Structures are given as structure tokens and as C-alpha cells.
Amino acid sequence: MKRDLLILSALLCCAIIITYILAKEAEPDRISTNYKRNYDRFTLQPIDTVLFPGRVSVMKAAQGNIYGYVYSKKTIFRYNTDLHKIDSFYSSNGIVTRLEIDTNTFYIFDDGENNVTAYGPGKGNAYYLKTIFDSSKKITQLKLRKFSTPTVDSTIYEFPRFEDGGLSADGFYISNHHHQYYISFYNSGIIQYDEKHKSTKLIHTIDRTPPSNIAVPTGNIYTRSSKSVIVNSTATADEEHLYVLSYVLSQDAVKSNYRGPVVDVYNIQSGLYESSFRFPGYQGKPVLQLSKSADTLVAAYENNILLFKLTNK
User: How far apart are CA 236 and CA 244, in angstroms?
Assistant: First the structure.
């Protein structure tokens, strides 16, 4: 039990460190790929800029509203894109680490992702993904968990085993109406779960970064090693595409000396790469969160939320 708590503490610490690096604009170590990205598919047109009451660490967009969690205020704020108005949606003394939206129901996760607060009617068959470190097998498992019965799990994927307490499998969750994703911070593997067909698929990003042991034992816990280079920092998805914000340097970026991140777009059905685009700079701040609703792509730059119309060229 004590070891499990230490592992969970290490995972939480890892996520905090990643957020700190991005928020403070530190120049991270970079991975290069021989792949040459193309930028001939999508265009971004700025349509709105919204100032939230603090840095947004969790964000979702749905039905004309943008929901952003501001840790310093312990509050989820809501911005209505039609009324151009911000109000307080949810406040708590705890920490919100994840927000899922299912039609008219909101699921708000605490820092351990064990307690879920639900607002709205919900669906009886609604599921979410969760990673669990199996201390007996010494591996991390990706579980499918039902909101209505949160103690019942089914394992849909097992990550490669490394002696690092599960840190190699550290990542983040996104979803759309029919698919859920677990995206690694450190390698090219993306796990896609199809709710309709109850099937799991592994998608690889264009950098092909392999999973590896990215931590070293330090006493009773594991700490990140120099191998733990961030490749994917945030993502979003719609009915057709998966949009991944990547810090991998491709041939075109190296040649032009471009050091910023790039959004790589993948086809949901085939899992294949289609095209890329770059966000414009804004006050020297990095993009921390992404979300998409209809043809609007939303990016959080610290406490500034920028809305773009995403269209095909």
C-alpha cells in the first residue's frame, strides 16, 4: 500500500513538473524526427480572445461554452461564445484535474481521479479511461471504468513494463462523442477506445518515439531521468480528426529554425497522419490546453483563451 502511494505521488509530481515547464516557458529538451510535415490542409482564422481570471489548467468546449479550471481560484469558469460573458460554473476546495462532458452531464475529477462529481442526468452506459499501476505485475494498465459503478473496471490495454513505477506510461486523456484517447507525454503511442464497437486501437504519431524507461529509483520512489523528453503536451478530437500538440522537431522545423510546437492532425478511422498547422504566438506564452467545438478550435495561452476558426484550404 505504501509503495502504491509513493508511485501515485511520483505520477502526480511528474504531471506538475510538465505543467511548470510549459507554463514558465522553459526550453525543453527536444526529439527530432526525419519526417517532413506538410501544412497544406488547414487554416486558422482568429475570431475571439478571452481573458480568464487566472491560468487555465483544464479546459473543455461544448455547446457554445468554454469551461476552464483556474487552480488559483479553485473554480471552473464558463465563457459563453454567443453572449461573450464569463461566469462561475463550479467551485470547490479540492483540486480539479480532469473534466469530461457527456451531452448535458459534466464529470469533474479530483486530484486522485477516484472521486467524480456529476452534474446532469448522465447516461447509464457512460465510461471513462483510467490508468492503474498493478503492483503485482509491475505494469501500468489502462482501464475502462463506468461512471455509475466506479469500482468495476475492465483492462483494455497493458503498457510495456519498465522498472520505473509506471512513469513511462504517464499521459493524459481526451475524448469526443464516440472515442476516448490516452496520449503519452513521452512516446508516440496513442490508445484509442471506440465506445460503439467496444474496440481498442494503438495509433502511432509521426515521430515514432518508442516507449522507454524514463525514471530512476531514488530511495523508495522513482524520479524522472534525462530520457523523459516531452513529445505530446495536449490534444483534442472531433468526429473525424485527432489534433495533437507535438514538441517533436521535424525536418521542416529544423531547416527553418522553428522551435515552437506544432499541431499534428490524424484521421480517426485510419489513424494515419494527414497534415499539420502552427499556432500564432501570443504574448510569448505557450499553448497549454486545446479543445474543439464544431469548427472552432480553442487554445489556452496561460489565462488568455484564443478562439480560431479551423477550415480546410
Answer: 7
